Amino acid sequence: MDLFGSFALLLAFLCGLYAFGGGIAAIVTRRPLLIKSARHAGMAVCVLIWLGFGSLAYLFQTDNFSMAYVVEHSNRTLPAFFKFAAIWAGQEGSLLFWSFLLSIYVFSVLFAYRGKHPELMPYVGVVVAGVQLFFLTFNNFLASPFQILGSAAPSGAMQWIMRPDGNGLNPLLQYPEMVIHPPILYSGYTGFTIPFAFALAALLGRYPGEKWIHLTRRWTMIAWGFQGVGILLGAHWAYAVLGWGGYWMWDPVENASLMPWLTGTAFLHSVMMQEKRGMMRVWNVWLVFTTFLLTIFGTFLTRSGVVNSVHAFAQSKIGPWFLGFIGLVLVVCFVSFWRNRDYLRSDNTLDSLVSRESSFLFNNLILLVACVAVISGTLFPVLSEWVRGTKISVGVPFFNMINLPIGLFLLFLTGVGPLLAWRKTSMASLRKNFGGPLVIGIVAGVVGMALGLRDFYVTTCLILSVFVTLTILLEFYRGARVIASRGNTNLLSGVAQLTMRNTRRYGGYVVHFGIVLIFLGISGAAFNQDKQAEMPPGAQMQIGPYRLTHQTFDSTQLGNYTSERATIAVDRGGKQIIMLYPEKRFYPSNQESGTMVAIYSTLKEDLYVVYAGHSPDTQQPVIHAYLNPLVKWIWLGGAIVVLGTLLALMPNRQPMLALRTAVEPSRAAPALSPSPAPIQHYDGHD
Amino acid sequence: MIALAGAVAALAAAPLFAQAPVQTTDRVRQIGKQLMCTCGCGDTAGSCSHPGAAFSGPCEIAKAKLKEVDERISRGESNSAILQAFVQEYGESALAAPPARGLNLFAYSFPAIAFAIGLALVIMVIRQWRHRPRVAPATGPPVSAEMLEHARRQIEREVQDD
What pLDDT is recorded for position A675? Predict the structure, then answer.
């Protein structure tokens, strides 16, 4: 099976070469048969990658310890569930996994648009084949997961070795969330290849109009959604497993996943300017290019050892290849842009500064500044080492200081932007849309301050959260009221109809509401408390309103680990509310430990209890308890963002308006008709 | 809305539960959170949980730093003097946020510079868009069906809400 996998990947590489070279030849010669064969080669690449990936999965499931990669990341006692997750636990497997997920996107695109858009698709095929070839180079020649263990026999000939057992999987990865977090995050990373390929293809082929935007909108949203969910799942994993009481550490690997998400978010907004007004064409193309480059840059950071990270793969020599690829893509993008820049000229004017258009400009500016802030903080240690010879640390306090104001400004724009009209917004409209929510938001802030809120950022976040939520609710209410009054239905049904008539707009509002909840949840961190104490059985600890009593302590051998578990009774106001079982696991195969945090989670706060192990000094069990307000709002907000994204991906139930098709004007008609075809029906509002 | 009001109330009530007086141990942790731990956890000395190790508390390196902070507090040193002492002993890499001076200013000011450049670009783009010559009333040949169809599509795009 190892040979099968190797050959499948080698064949995929060869087919990729044909898809790339044949694709270029097809573009030059315009021969239909060549176009078709290049497309089929592209699809064959995908199928062969699936076979290669499948064979690696088989090798893990069958405990084939003649394979170096399987030995390194699995062992016999590892549950089958985690044997699957072990595929992407190391450098080689995760790069194959990247190719695998990318191939799913590529196959879907090549299959879905077969025979369509003949001016565009050959270019798309060439671009995706180029990207696939880059990763297949790793899978075959630089970081193959199919390397066999061998040693020199006394005769000097090489002989295969089969180890009796493997080293096992890193305990930090033996957590159910870790099985789904990398696939989802990687689906985000790889998914951005599709809008990149279409953007570059449209530029190279001078494909007319905004068609490529329409074609890639859903692909971009899917990638963006996966990226966002992947980031949140990673945060939740860090929260539930690492046992440090937090969910975001501004670690370089976390930052690497955030950067393309930020530029992708900017793109999802600015793309509307191009669709509606034919503006920001240059900007959009470069936003897509940047987002794709940041996905590659992110994985370069993770794998090159350039920056220190708890999540990073072992330092390897593949970094220069990534840098080379980034440089090559940059050159291709820049040359394509320079040669075809006249094709990207905007055809409309800005009517007013107070308009949806200008709000999108500012939204994009702030998102890009946030991305720059994350990049500069992440890379500053490298820069300082390069210039001064010492690596300066840039930790959580720095990132919080820089990003908090940026985040709050974005929250403000989340409330303001969607309610500004296209072209021009009148003062009356501003007052109508924002007056009430702003006043109520300020009142909420004043109430918070009266109750003791002193943190500037938390108070501002509170005011803005109330403001944004009310603007969103008002939008739903006004639209639903019109529908309800016209259709003699109730308000709830009106909301449902309204949402289904324009899923993109109202799905977007739902996403914005989810973001508000995430901001509220994050702001709770200003009031985190924690206590750590040696707690032999019978000992008690008070944290906030909770009293923790260590009742018993046990140690058992379970599966592939030994568990030490504390039983903690939690009382509140003299009444027992829950029993918590924080756990410490020891994995003998790789001599590492992992924590299983026990969390009592409510909407108000999380009681987060860690059994830290025995104190190295006194050998007494140590309990570390945290009281983290509003953390649940972050996960709830994430779920609402997913819901909103799914809504926005759905097609509209019925068109917003229908215009009569233009009729050939009579020769006697005026030169430019001042009145276009009449609007027959319109249920929207703005 | 009720849930949001709940969140607002919880947020507003949070300071009531926060521990008011800062005791010595809390001060040690506070200062510890401004010092990097160097065990490889990527966290600060005040919050090192040393993932993967047998003990999920502060590692030996973090404990040594916290102990030194504690000793300096008992000697009556101020927070900034303690941090400065660590910088002198271990260099600027001892701090979780580099002091805003010299080359470090670059890290602090880069986002602001990016914002300023971006803002200038936005203003330039807006001026360009606003000063673009508008279409003059047509006096030429009659409008073709294609032009009307193009205009119809544009109207459709622009009035459809997003």
Answer: 39
User: Is position A494 within any domain?
Assistant: no
Cα angle B23, B26, B32; round to 5: 140
Domain containing A14: what range?
A: 1-150+164-169
Is the domain of A9 the same as that of A97?
yes
**Given an 8 Å threshold on Cβ–Cβ distance, is B6 in contact with A603?**
yes
Neighbours of A81 (CB within 10 A): 11
Is residue A656 in a domain? no
Give residue A531's region: left, alpha or beta (phi > 0; psi -120 to 50). beta
Task: Tell me whether residue A128 is in a domain.
Answer: yes
For residues A138 and A184, state if they share a domain.
no
Q: Which of A273, A363, A393 to mutate to test the interface with B (most CBs of B within 10 A)?
A: A393
Q: How many domains in chain A?
A: 3
List the single residue in A with minimal CA-CA distance to B114: A369
pTM of the complete model: 0.86
- Residue A248 CA to residue A311 CA, distance in Å, equals 13
Residue A475, min C-alpha distance to chain B (Å): 12
H, E, C per residue of A68-83: HHHHHHCCCCCCHHHH
The tens digit of pLDDT for each residue in A554-574 reads: 888 887 788 899 999 999 998
Enumerate the residues of chain B whose CB falls inside 8 A of the CB of residue A686: 161
Name chain B contacts of A383, Cβ cutoff 8 Å: 103, 106
pLDDT tens per residue across span A88-131: 999 999 999 999 999 999 999 999 999 888 889 999 999 999 99
